[in-house]
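Friendly challenge for the regulars: who can give me the C-alpha coordinates for this chain first? No prize, just bragging rights.
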Amino acid sequence: MEEQTKLKVGVFGVGALGRHHARLYRENPKAEVAGIFDVNRETAEKVGEEFGLKVFDSWQSLAEACDAMSVAVPANYHGVSTIPLLEMGKHVLVEKPIASSLAEAEAMVDAARKHQVVLAVGHVERFNPAMDFLEKYKSKTRFVEAHRLAKYPPPRPGLPRRGTEVSVILDLMIHDIDLVLTMIDADVERIDVVGIPVLSSTEDIVNARIKFVNGSCASLTASRVSQDPMRRFRVFQDDSYISMDYGNFFGMVLKRNKLGLARKDVNLDEKNALAAELDNFIDAVNLTRTSGKVHPPKVTGEAGLKALKLAVAIEQEARRYNAQYGFKFAPCTSAEREH
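First reply, four minutes later:
Bragging rights claimed.
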Protein backbone atom coordinates (compact mmCIF):
# COMPACT_ATOMS: atom_id res chain seq x y z
CA MET A 1 0.00 0.00 0.00
CA GLU A 2 1.33 3.40 -0.97
CA GLU A 3 2.36 5.73 1.83
CA GLN A 4 -0.18 8.42 0.88
CA THR A 5 -3.10 5.98 1.12
CA LYS A 6 -2.40 4.92 4.69
CA LEU A 7 -5.09 5.68 7.25
CA LYS A 8 -3.99 8.25 9.82
CA VAL A 9 -4.73 6.84 13.27
CA GLY A 10 -4.15 7.86 16.87
CA VAL A 11 -4.54 6.28 20.29
CA PHE A 12 -6.28 8.04 23.18
CA GLY A 13 -5.12 6.26 26.35
CA VAL A 14 -1.89 4.25 26.20
CA GLY A 15 -1.98 2.29 29.43
CA ALA A 16 -1.84 -1.51 29.67
CA LEU A 17 -4.03 -2.09 26.59
CA GLY A 18 -3.75 1.16 24.65
CA ARG A 19 0.00 0.68 24.49
CA HIS A 20 -0.61 -2.43 22.37
CA HIS A 21 -3.01 -0.53 20.11
CA ALA A 22 -0.22 1.94 19.39
CA ARG A 23 2.33 -0.83 18.80
CA LEU A 24 0.08 -2.85 16.47
CA TYR A 25 -1.10 0.16 14.47
CA ARG A 26 2.56 1.00 13.96
CA GLU A 27 3.14 -2.51 12.58
CA ASN A 28 0.10 -2.43 10.26
CA PRO A 29 1.05 -1.45 6.69
CA LYS A 30 -2.39 0.10 6.17
CA ALA A 31 -1.96 2.63 8.98
CA GLU A 32 0.14 5.66 9.79
CA VAL A 33 0.22 6.50 13.50
CA ALA A 34 -0.17 10.26 13.84
CA GLY A 35 0.51 10.05 17.55
CA ILE A 36 -0.81 9.26 21.00
CA PHE A 37 -2.32 11.03 24.01
CA ASP A 38 -2.76 10.08 27.64
CA VAL A 39 -3.84 12.17 30.61
CA ASN A 40 -0.76 10.77 32.34
CA ARG A 41 1.98 12.56 30.44
CA GLU A 42 4.68 10.32 31.89
CA THR A 43 2.92 7.20 30.55
CA ALA A 44 2.49 8.81 27.14
CA GLU A 45 6.14 9.90 26.96
CA LYS A 46 7.30 6.40 27.87
CA VAL A 47 5.18 4.75 25.16
CA GLY A 48 6.08 7.45 22.66
CA GLU A 49 9.77 6.89 23.23
CA GLU A 50 9.39 3.10 23.10
CA PHE A 51 7.70 3.10 19.70
CA GLY A 52 8.98 6.35 18.24
CA LEU A 53 5.57 8.06 18.27
CA LYS A 54 4.61 11.71 18.67
CA VAL A 55 3.01 12.60 21.98
CA PHE A 56 0.23 15.20 21.76
CA ASP A 57 -0.63 17.69 24.50
CA SER A 58 -4.40 17.19 24.17
CA TRP A 59 -6.86 14.72 22.72
CA GLN A 60 -8.27 17.54 20.57
CA SER A 61 -4.97 18.22 18.82
CA LEU A 62 -4.44 14.47 18.31
CA ALA A 63 -7.93 14.10 16.83
CA GLU A 64 -7.31 16.93 14.38
CA ALA A 65 -4.30 15.00 13.03
CA CYS A 66 -6.24 11.73 12.61
CA ASP A 67 -8.91 10.12 10.50
CA ALA A 68 -9.58 7.37 13.04
CA MET A 69 -8.78 6.72 16.69
CA SER A 70 -8.67 4.02 19.31
CA VAL A 71 -10.03 4.97 22.72
CA ALA A 72 -8.50 2.82 25.47
CA VAL A 73 -9.25 4.78 28.63
CA PRO A 74 -10.99 3.36 31.76
CA ALA A 75 -14.55 2.22 31.03
CA ASN A 76 -16.20 4.98 33.07
CA TYR A 77 -14.62 7.54 30.70
CA HIS A 78 -15.61 5.87 27.43
CA GLY A 79 -18.65 8.04 26.80
CA VAL A 80 -17.09 11.42 27.55
CA SER A 81 -13.99 10.51 25.56
CA THR A 82 -15.68 9.00 22.51
CA ILE A 83 -18.75 11.14 21.84
CA PRO A 84 -16.76 14.35 21.10
CA LEU A 85 -14.58 12.41 18.64
CA LEU A 86 -17.64 11.04 16.83
CA GLU A 87 -19.11 14.55 16.69
CA MET A 88 -15.85 15.69 15.05
CA GLY A 89 -16.47 13.11 12.32
CA LYS A 90 -13.73 10.75 13.52
CA HIS A 91 -14.05 6.99 13.20
CA VAL A 92 -13.57 5.33 16.60
CA LEU A 93 -12.67 1.94 18.00
CA VAL A 94 -13.52 2.02 21.70
CA GLU A 95 -12.41 -0.71 24.07
CA LYS A 96 -14.97 -2.93 25.77
CA PRO A 97 -17.37 -2.40 27.37
CA ILE A 98 -18.73 0.22 25.00
CA ALA A 99 -19.54 2.33 28.08
CA SER A 100 -20.22 1.96 31.78
CA SER A 101 -23.87 3.03 31.43
CA LEU A 102 -26.63 2.37 28.90
CA ALA A 103 -27.36 6.07 28.50
CA GLU A 104 -23.78 6.77 27.43
CA ALA A 105 -23.69 3.76 25.11
CA GLU A 106 -26.92 4.79 23.42
CA ALA A 107 -25.58 8.33 22.99
CA MET A 108 -22.41 6.94 21.40
CA VAL A 109 -24.35 4.80 18.93
CA ASP A 110 -26.63 7.74 18.09
CA ALA A 111 -23.64 10.06 17.53
CA ALA A 112 -21.95 7.57 15.19
CA ARG A 113 -25.16 7.16 13.22
CA LYS A 114 -25.81 10.90 13.03
CA HIS A 115 -22.31 11.73 11.82
CA GLN A 116 -22.04 8.66 9.54
CA VAL A 117 -18.81 7.34 11.03
CA VAL A 118 -17.61 3.88 12.05
CA LEU A 119 -17.99 2.98 15.72
CA ALA A 120 -16.31 -0.33 16.59
CA VAL A 121 -16.18 -1.95 20.03
CA GLY A 122 -13.17 -3.89 21.27
CA HIS A 123 -14.72 -7.28 21.94
CA VAL A 124 -11.43 -8.87 20.92
CA GLU A 125 -12.55 -12.48 21.52
CA ARG A 126 -14.62 -12.24 18.32
CA PHE A 127 -11.26 -12.31 16.54
CA ASN A 128 -9.92 -15.26 18.50
CA PRO A 129 -9.28 -18.28 16.22
CA ALA A 130 -11.50 -20.38 18.48
CA MET A 131 -14.44 -18.11 17.68
CA ASP A 132 -13.63 -18.30 13.97
CA PHE A 133 -14.31 -22.02 14.30
CA LEU A 134 -17.34 -21.80 16.60
CA GLU A 135 -19.22 -19.29 14.44
CA LYS A 136 -19.36 -21.87 11.64
CA TYR A 137 -21.38 -24.18 13.91
CA LYS A 138 -23.62 -21.74 15.79
CA SER A 139 -27.02 -22.47 14.23
CA LYS A 140 -27.87 -25.49 16.40
CA THR A 141 -26.54 -24.21 19.71
CA ARG A 142 -28.59 -25.37 22.71
CA PHE A 143 -26.32 -24.75 25.72
CA VAL A 144 -23.17 -22.72 26.29
CA GLU A 145 -20.92 -22.91 29.33
CA ALA A 146 -18.14 -20.35 29.73
CA HIS A 147 -15.49 -19.82 32.40
CA ARG A 148 -13.34 -16.68 32.42
CA LEU A 149 -11.15 -16.58 35.49
CA ALA A 150 -8.29 -14.18 36.20
CA LYS A 151 -6.06 -13.05 39.03
CA TYR A 152 -6.80 -9.78 40.79
CA PRO A 153 -5.14 -7.01 38.74
CA PRO A 154 -2.00 -5.36 40.15
CA PRO A 155 -2.12 -1.85 41.65
CA ARG A 156 -1.50 1.25 39.54
CA PRO A 157 -0.08 4.47 41.02
CA GLY A 158 -2.83 7.06 41.34
CA LEU A 159 -5.45 4.89 39.62
CA PRO A 160 -7.78 2.04 40.58
CA ARG A 161 -6.62 -1.43 39.59
CA ARG A 162 -7.28 -1.99 35.90
CA GLY A 163 -10.90 -2.97 35.27
CA THR A 164 -12.08 -2.51 38.86
CA GLU A 165 -13.80 0.77 38.07
CA VAL A 166 -16.67 -1.54 37.01
CA SER A 167 -17.90 -4.96 38.15
CA VAL A 168 -16.37 -8.19 36.82
CA ILE A 169 -19.51 -8.46 34.68
CA LEU A 170 -18.58 -5.38 32.66
CA ASP A 171 -14.86 -6.08 33.01
CA LEU A 172 -14.55 -9.77 32.02
CA MET A 173 -17.91 -11.51 31.65
CA ILE A 174 -19.00 -9.10 28.93
CA HIS A 175 -16.60 -10.87 26.55
CA ASP A 176 -18.56 -14.10 26.95
CA ILE A 177 -21.89 -12.27 26.92
CA ASP A 178 -20.98 -10.95 23.48
CA LEU A 179 -19.91 -14.41 22.31
CA VAL A 180 -23.12 -16.01 23.60
CA LEU A 181 -25.23 -13.39 21.83
CA THR A 182 -23.25 -14.19 18.67
CA MET A 183 -23.89 -17.93 19.06
CA ILE A 184 -27.58 -17.68 20.10
CA ASP A 185 -29.77 -15.40 18.01
CA ALA A 186 -32.78 -15.08 20.31
CA ASP A 187 -34.23 -12.80 22.96
CA VAL A 188 -33.51 -13.42 26.63
CA GLU A 189 -36.39 -14.93 28.59
CA ARG A 190 -34.94 -14.82 32.10
CA ILE A 191 -31.67 -14.70 34.05
CA ASP A 192 -30.57 -16.11 37.42
CA VAL A 193 -27.46 -14.56 38.97
CA VAL A 194 -25.23 -14.91 42.02
CA GLY A 195 -22.41 -12.43 42.47
CA ILE A 196 -20.29 -11.03 45.29
CA PRO A 197 -17.61 -8.40 45.81
CA VAL A 198 -14.43 -9.76 47.39
CA LEU A 199 -11.65 -7.20 47.08
CA SER A 200 -13.43 -4.48 45.08
CA SER A 201 -16.45 -2.29 45.82
CA THR A 202 -18.34 -4.11 43.03
CA GLU A 203 -18.79 -7.78 42.12
CA ASP A 204 -15.52 -9.71 41.69
CA ILE A 205 -16.99 -13.16 41.05
CA VAL A 206 -20.31 -13.86 39.32
CA ASN A 207 -22.26 -16.75 37.87
CA ALA A 208 -25.15 -16.06 35.51
CA ARG A 209 -27.59 -18.52 33.95
CA ILE A 210 -29.36 -17.12 30.90
CA LYS A 211 -32.49 -18.71 29.38
CA PHE A 212 -33.46 -17.68 25.84
CA VAL A 213 -36.95 -17.74 24.32
CA ASN A 214 -35.91 -20.40 21.78
CA GLY A 215 -35.03 -22.85 24.58
CA SER A 216 -31.27 -22.34 24.48
CA CYS A 217 -29.37 -21.66 27.72
CA ALA A 218 -26.01 -20.29 28.79
CA SER A 219 -24.10 -20.50 32.06
CA LEU A 220 -21.35 -17.91 32.48
CA THR A 221 -18.83 -17.66 35.30
CA ALA A 222 -16.38 -14.78 35.63
CA SER A 223 -13.87 -14.07 38.38
CA ARG A 224 -11.03 -11.62 38.84
CA VAL A 225 -9.96 -13.11 42.19
CA SER A 226 -8.89 -16.58 41.03
CA GLN A 227 -5.47 -18.13 41.42
CA ASP A 228 -5.45 -20.01 38.12
CA PRO A 229 -6.47 -18.16 34.94
CA MET A 230 -8.95 -19.92 32.66
CA ARG A 231 -10.72 -19.02 29.39
CA ARG A 232 -12.94 -21.88 28.27
CA PHE A 233 -16.05 -21.98 26.14
CA ARG A 234 -18.11 -25.12 25.67
CA VAL A 235 -21.03 -25.49 23.26
CA PHE A 236 -23.65 -28.25 23.27
CA GLN A 237 -25.57 -28.60 20.00
CA ASP A 238 -28.23 -30.90 18.57
CA ASP A 239 -25.70 -33.40 17.27
CA SER A 240 -22.35 -32.36 18.71
CA TYR A 241 -20.30 -31.05 21.61
CA ILE A 242 -17.57 -28.47 21.07
CA SER A 243 -15.02 -27.59 23.73
CA MET A 244 -12.67 -24.68 23.15
CA ASP A 245 -9.80 -23.49 25.30
CA TYR A 246 -9.31 -20.12 23.66
CA GLY A 247 -6.47 -19.28 25.98
CA ASN A 248 -4.41 -22.19 24.67
CA PHE A 249 -5.83 -22.20 21.10
CA PHE A 250 -6.94 -25.81 21.30
CA GLY A 251 -10.31 -27.52 21.04
CA MET A 252 -12.17 -30.76 20.60
CA VAL A 253 -15.34 -31.70 18.72
CA LEU A 254 -17.52 -34.73 19.36
CA LYS A 255 -20.05 -35.21 16.59
CA ARG A 256 -22.73 -37.86 16.15
CA ASN A 257 -22.52 -40.09 13.09
CA LYS A 258 -23.96 -43.45 11.99
CA LEU A 259 -21.47 -45.36 14.14
CA GLY A 260 -21.89 -43.27 17.29
CA LEU A 261 -19.58 -40.38 18.17
CA ALA A 262 -16.60 -39.22 16.18
CA ARG A 263 -13.92 -37.10 17.83
CA LYS A 264 -11.92 -34.42 16.11
CA ASP A 265 -9.18 -32.42 17.81
CA VAL A 266 -8.98 -28.84 16.65
CA ASN A 267 -5.54 -27.25 16.68
CA LEU A 268 -6.21 -23.61 16.13
CA ASP A 269 -3.48 -21.57 14.51
CA GLU A 270 -2.45 -18.90 16.93
CA LYS A 271 -3.02 -15.38 15.73
CA ASN A 272 -2.91 -11.96 17.35
CA ALA A 273 -6.59 -11.27 17.96
CA LEU A 274 -6.01 -7.59 18.76
CA ALA A 275 -4.01 -7.11 15.54
CA ALA A 276 -6.90 -8.71 13.62
CA GLU A 277 -9.39 -6.45 15.38
CA LEU A 278 -7.45 -3.30 14.47
CA ASP A 279 -7.06 -4.47 10.88
CA ASN A 280 -10.82 -5.05 10.63
CA PHE A 281 -11.41 -1.53 11.96
CA ILE A 282 -9.01 -0.03 9.43
CA ASP A 283 -10.72 -1.91 6.59
CA ALA A 284 -14.17 -0.76 7.73
CA VAL A 285 -13.02 2.87 7.85
CA ASN A 286 -11.33 2.72 4.45
CA LEU A 287 -14.42 1.15 2.84
CA THR A 288 -16.59 3.81 4.48
CA ARG A 289 -14.39 6.62 3.18
CA THR A 290 -14.27 5.29 -0.37
CA SER A 291 -17.95 4.31 -0.67
CA GLY A 292 -19.50 7.21 1.24
CA LYS A 293 -21.63 4.72 3.16
CA VAL A 294 -20.80 3.39 6.63
CA HIS A 295 -19.31 -0.08 6.36
CA PRO A 296 -19.88 -2.01 9.60
CA PRO A 297 -16.89 -3.48 11.44
CA LYS A 298 -17.16 -7.00 12.81
CA VAL A 299 -18.25 -5.68 16.22
CA THR A 300 -20.47 -2.64 15.75
CA GLY A 301 -21.56 -0.08 18.30
CA GLU A 302 -24.99 -1.68 18.20
CA ALA A 303 -23.46 -5.07 19.10
CA GLY A 304 -21.56 -3.46 21.96
CA LEU A 305 -24.76 -1.85 23.20
CA LYS A 306 -26.63 -5.17 23.01
CA ALA A 307 -23.94 -6.89 25.11
CA LEU A 308 -23.96 -4.02 27.61
CA LYS A 309 -27.74 -4.22 28.02
CA LEU A 310 -27.52 -7.87 29.04
CA ALA A 311 -24.47 -7.18 31.23
CA VAL A 312 -26.33 -4.43 33.09
CA ALA A 313 -29.36 -6.70 33.53
CA ILE A 314 -27.08 -9.39 35.01
CA GLU A 315 -25.47 -6.83 37.32
CA GLN A 316 -28.87 -5.59 38.51
CA GLU A 317 -30.08 -9.14 39.12
CA ALA A 318 -27.00 -9.95 41.22
CA ARG A 319 -27.71 -6.95 43.43
CA ARG A 320 -31.45 -7.69 43.63
CA TYR A 321 -30.65 -11.27 44.70
CA ASN A 322 -28.30 -10.10 47.45
CA ALA A 323 -30.86 -7.56 48.68
CA GLN A 324 -33.69 -10.12 48.65
CA TYR A 325 -31.78 -12.60 50.79
CA GLY A 326 -30.17 -10.03 53.03
CA PHE A 327 -26.61 -10.71 51.91
CA LYS A 328 -24.37 -7.80 52.87
CA PHE A 329 -20.69 -7.41 52.20
CA ALA A 330 -18.33 -5.22 54.14
CA PRO A 331 -16.78 -2.66 51.76
CA CYS A 332 -13.08 -3.13 51.22
CA THR A 333 -10.98 -0.13 52.23
CA SER A 334 -8.82 1.62 49.65
CA ALA A 335 -5.72 0.54 51.57
CA GLU A 336 -6.82 -3.10 51.42
CA ARG A 337 -7.56 -2.84 47.71
CA GLU A 338 -4.11 -1.42 47.01
CA HIS A 339 -2.39 -4.23 48.89
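Confidence is low (pLDDT under 50) at residues 335-339. The two ends are 49 Å apart (CA to CA). Your move, everyone else.
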